[in-house]
Batch of 2 targets.
Target 1
Amino acid sequence: MALRQTADELIPELRRYQRQLLLAGAAGAVVSFVGYVLNPAQFFQSYLMAYMFVLGLSLGSLALGMVHQLSGGAWGVVIRRPIGAAARVLPALTVMFLPIAFGMHHLYEWTHADVVANDPILQGKQLYLNTPFFLVRAAIYFAAWNGISFLLNRWSLEQDRTGDRRLSRRMQLLSGGGLLAYGLLTTFAAFDWMMSLAPHWFSTIYGVLIIGGQALSAMAFLIVVLVWLSRRKPLSDIVVASHFHDLANLMLAFVMLWAYFSFSQYLIIWSGNLPEEITWYMHRLQPGWRLVALLLVVFHFAVPFVLLLSRAVKREPDTIMKVAAAILVARLIDLFWLIAPEFHQDGVYVSWMDVALPLTLVSLWLGCFMWQLRGRAILPVYDPQFEEALGPIIDQGGETPRTAH
Amino acid sequence: MDNPMPLEERQLTGAGSGVPVIAPGHTFGSVTDKISAIVLTRRTPIGWYLGFMTAAALTGLLLVSLSYLVVEGIGIWGNNIPVAWAFDITNFVWWIGIGHAGTLISAILLLLRQTWRTSINRFAEAMTLCAVACAGIFPLFHTGRPWLAYWLLPYPNTMGIWPQFRSPLVWDVFAVSTYATVSLLFWFVGLVPDLATLRDRSQSRTGRIIYGALALGWRGSAMHWHRYETAYLLLAGIATPLVVSVHTVVSFDFAVAIVPGWHTTIFPPYFVAGAIYSGFAMVLTLSIPIRAIYGLQDFITLRHLENMAKVMLVTGLIVAYGYTVEAFIAWYGGNAYEGFMIWNRITGPYAPAYWALLLCNVIIPQILWFKSVRTNVIVLFVLSLVVNVGMWLERFIIIVTSLHRDFLPSSWGMYQPTFWDWSTYLGTIGLFLMLLFLFVRFLPLISIFEMRTLLPEAKGEQ
Amino acid sequence: MHSPDVYGLMAEFADPNELVAAAHRAHHEGYRRMDAYSPLPIEELHEAIGFHNTRLPLIVLIGGIVGGLAGYLLQWWASAVAYPLNVGGKPFHSWPAFIPVTFECTILGAALSAVFGMLALNGLPQPYHPVFNVPRFTLASRSGFFLCIEARDGKFDLSRTRAFLETLGATEVTTVAD
């Protein structure tokens, strides 16, 4: 019976958490506004970092959800609903992009006409790097991401109501094309919003690096959520150690991929040592910023990598949650290291807004996530893979979704 | 059984695919007999002899070409300055890439618990070994004096000098030799229990002695199986990053240089995807005729072919992503040489090859979006050939178009393959096929013991 | 207790489940020196005969670490100590350039340890083993499932152990010559 109820009915405290998080986010917004008044340039830098972090949670979840539609597997069935809820925060994220559009002049050097007038390379890029086209592109990205998320979530809701399995076929078809669109558009969004902070610099792997980071952020977040949900009925009877094991293995794979992409980019640019490329690293590896880079090597790669090799760590919900939470912090530091050195080229600098804005945006994002999680059943009971993936576990516990309605 | 469809069979069928990975009705005995009969009792088909003779003749051509090369020197090839790397490195990268599908099927799909891999992994691993053997020939003979190839290895010598470890070409020596070693070990370890089967079932004394020696005295002990499975899983875990690293190092051969068209950071993941793409194409090229000739449709089902087609579609799209980003950044970067490079590919003297590459690798494979294509054996076979050609062209374009237009127009040149370029390339295709023909004749081309684990009987159902 | 030319008693079973059940019963009965033989790996079988974990993962870990360290030290020593050579203005100790070879050496060390560690722990290659004296044992690589209680087990008694094996539902019990 319980599986057909909405998360709201099963976990009443969700509503309370949602309210508290949104209130905290509102308070944070007020504090951040003070920051904007005091130092608008710093405000937009910190905002961009925080925004890319929460955007990664939603987009990474959307992408993982589409991968699961195509690949199948028990790992995705247990996190399908958190995936959907995270993706449904995208409309809110669309609104939250507006400050970046307003802050373009503070963030992007190529918007300064006087700079471009004296820079032949930037003049060559004007066809792409100009304000109207930048905004049009952003509109296209958001339209596509929201459109894909909207259709997938609507069909999934319809399947919850009707049990129509043909909808899965439709979702798979959309996921195929959707992943393609996600990959291309997210790449160009990464070029626009982050790579063009250093308008002379370019790296063809940059989009892949950001996509891999989004997948890692989303996976780490989903593991934290699943551990939290698995301490409560009804998931406490359904989620078992092997689910965490599979998800943790995927997280390990993303950790390794991040290291692989990052190191490949570094080795190629370091070996080539061309002035237009290496300066980007010189800013990020000068004394001070080098420590942040070292921090990333240790906490974004080495420590999680070694821990996640252990079977015991991957199967114990409490430990895996700690590892996943630490990875989320490391993700934020990675974005900080990608963005902030561009504006603080004479040494490491951490503003109070680099803490306040992530806290604000994460609170708002989590509040929206809880709100979206509440409205639907906690598991996709009519998904064709549901029985194969979870049937044996549920049969043992005496709950059968087939007799549920 | 009152249940019309036992649980295991349902799992084998998988969600929504409808086609099982192994046809119903088989038992431990029938699977063993059917696969081992190809090696032990069945009369060798006439097609095997014809194919083997053709492949052996091409291998003869390879021997002639290489002998002439050693006597005469690299000048018999079309290589020149500025195009110092041409067919040899193109073929090297092409063959190494083909090999990667074998490791991917045996290692990554094992870790992902994709049981459909079982009937194709042995064969794909053998393909890896043959492809690596062919790949190794090219850099070895490109040195001009292959008998001095050991100079590439770090060993104390009379000159007191050491390999230049900051050069990707030395990394390549380590990557490719590690890859060859690990692939051989992985393949051999997988073979041991099946060699024991052949030892126990062989009718001839020679067969018993040879298979017996190779089986190392395997007796199927429970303790042995436990350690064996642990070792096999660990090897799969080790081979997965290895296969990624090998093509990454191959891509570094180009990317750490500052040649326009080579020096670009997307190369590592995009080379790896391209390798898997061409490798799966080659597995399809080979397995479609083999399953027809040996009647293995029960074991290599349409489900396998469709899954491989899906992998091709995905990796092909990643490769297309690589082309797109590369072209965009060549313009966006504002570097005159990079911009010229991409323009020269599109409109320069090698433009027809560039457009053919886009056609073969990007445009034609889009038909794989349709299920009717993915389950049509003939179309898949033709498409796999198209992708093989496309991926060869890709390496040719990357290598030759980037080299033939040097930074100074006074250093520009052209490359035309000579007869000996072609004969060496065709010769390695002959060697590849000849080694595979020998493998199919003398060793079980499907893992027998892993097929047993897929049967309902393995779970105690009758 | 037993004649020196007997290695043990070999019982044959019809399918994997019966073999696992029989192994459990024999272990429960107090037999320790025994082994089960099957044409395919059976998940719970090694536990049924009382064999638990293998040290192989640790061996592989050590092999990998030794390989990686050796690879890095070799490069550092050759490039920065034995014959320092300025190439492209790069430092003698160019750690980023040493990562690929270090990685490959780690993999090589781990893979060699996995294969040779497994063979060594299994005592392979082993050209002669008494179980091969049983004529029907050739089926152990096709479709036969066997349990062999060895004569060196303290509880072994030719007639009593044979009677015990027959109660387990063995299709055939054979004496294995040493």
Target 2
Amino acid sequence: MIHKLTMPKWGLSMTEGKVVAWLAEDGAEVDAGAEVVEIETEKIASGLEVPQRGILRQVSKIGEMAPVGGLIGVIVDGGDSQAEIDAFVAEFQASFVPEEAEEESASAEPETIEVLGKTMRYLKRGEGGDPAILFHGFGGDLNNWLFNHEVLAANRAVYAVDRPGHGGSSKDVGSATPDSFKDTLAGVMDALDLPKAHLVGHSMGGGVSLDFALAHPERTLSLVLIASTGLGPEIDGGYIDGFVTAGKRRDLKPHLEKLFADPKLVTRQLIDDVLKYKRLDGVDLALRTIADQFFPEGQQALILRDQLSKLSVPTLVLWGAEDRIVPVSHAEGLPANIETRILPGAGHMVQMEAAAQVNRAITSFWE
Amino acid sequence: MGRKITFQQAVTEALVQEMERDKSVVLMGEDVAGGSGADGEMDAWGGPLGVTKGLWGKFGDRVLDTPISESAFVGTAIGAATAGLRPVVELMFVDFMGVCFDQIFNQAAKFRYMFGGRARTPVVIRSMIGAGFRAAAQHSQCLYPVFTHIPGLKCVIPSTPYDAKGLLIQAIRDDDPVVVFEHKVLYTIEGEVPEESYTIPFGEANYVREGDDVTIVALGRMVHMSTEAAEILMKEGIDCEVIDPRTTSPLDEDTILESVEKTGRLVVVDEASPRCNMATDISAMVAQKGFDSLKAPIKMVTPPHTPVPFSPVLEDMYVPDAAKVAAAVRDVMGHKAQAA
């Protein structure tokens, strides 16, 4: 059996990617979920995992560009001959037509809904199954899930939502109380016609999801908290303040670098994208209001740790061991009903920096 | 992907959104409405290329047609700014600015300095620049270096629809006089522009493209000539970084120096006449502050020191293009080969 390994689509604007390194040799036996190739886009670089166990045959050479969906390698499991593999590759290359940028964007275009009188933007991927909602953190947007969304949506509909004040959603956050954010999440589920869903929250999106799950266990199928707030008082107040106040590339860069264990992941394009968001009218006020409400004086205000033992839904906690924003110690000593994984070598944006492990952990947790 | 609109639509949208947000924003200029009493849609001009078309119908008396007397109406706008309005005054072509220099150079630019920092002059002067329209010597100049020379003025040269909207909104909200230079050839280019209002701070250059071998600094239409050149050079194995300062006053020296520190080579592309232009200014700045980083002499790509020709053949030869930029880059790269 020959399986394709194709150029993934990471983020709405990606049309092609570059193979910068092979992490497994041509002909090597690789396990399902192993990262075998390093891909670079104009925005970011990450490893790509293989879907099946088998023998890796490299197709793209290092430094080569490939369009989204293009063949970069194959995984052979079984006794297919070199001739059969060559024929498979030749047939794919002969019939492959890269999707036009226009068509591609039409197939994965974010949509908007009205929730409590405000516009909310979301991106849906996948169909059927028990649905899941991805909820990003403070200052983020649905693109924070670019390495996760497609993989998690293999067997179900997965909605990545821009939280109030963020991304393409309304910048009016009112007084940004925890209750208003809980109500918004309930409103999103109502508008999308989802009586129940799996919730996956990163950072402050995790804190809000936890708060919601405690209030509405009947609507929460399960809960995944990634580097979540709400589990202790500490947070890097300098980061929150720096992110809110920085207006230029040079000022913002050192703060964004704190988000990753490897600061090189903070590309100029990533900084520019964050600045484009921060420069929209209303964002400054929204971020300041949220920060005042949730992180006054450099501490977390909404701490739900003592209620975790009452939590009746299956819960998984994931953390990067090198998180510099919310300390990894918040993942320690949690009640026994909660499954916990600490991922080495990753910082606060663990779902980006250790995407393959996070995807595997969530997928097996859901099963 | 985000919504795409033209440069011209981006300018119009910035004006509309700021007029809706702030009642003190008014528009003035020759034919900005298009004849007193026109409804703003039918037979209205909306400025020489229609940027303000339709606004009279929306905002009525806040869109003021003026007589053909630049010194009078630019002076009026500057006076109104000191008295609390935020006028956006359009002066069709930058070539006509000469008749109102006193109002701009001696009045608007000086008030804050001469009144002990207590006067504000939040006026925006919009004007078209550039060759390529077969409009001859009196309608084709790039006079932004003249304004950059004057302390007290802020000078903005957008090169994309995104920048055109964000920089114009920033200009309107700024409390100092700002001159916005819009290249007429760029009005039809399309790009992604958020529907929401946003600002871009002055004095922050844009990395149009990242590269390791040569830094190309370019403004306005020349940004596009430079990226085109960078594409050609990429196939030859030369990796160009293209930087668009976006504003010449204030100028983001740090970003230019940071880039030259990495690449060691600088080509500055400027459509303004070659003497005392932004190319000479930026080259001198890098020679003074970044000399140790340079591996090759700085190269400037500019038109010749002549008026813009009316003959289409000569005009095309006059304007710097991608081939000229690419040739300059090959030159500075070649210098390294000799040295090695």
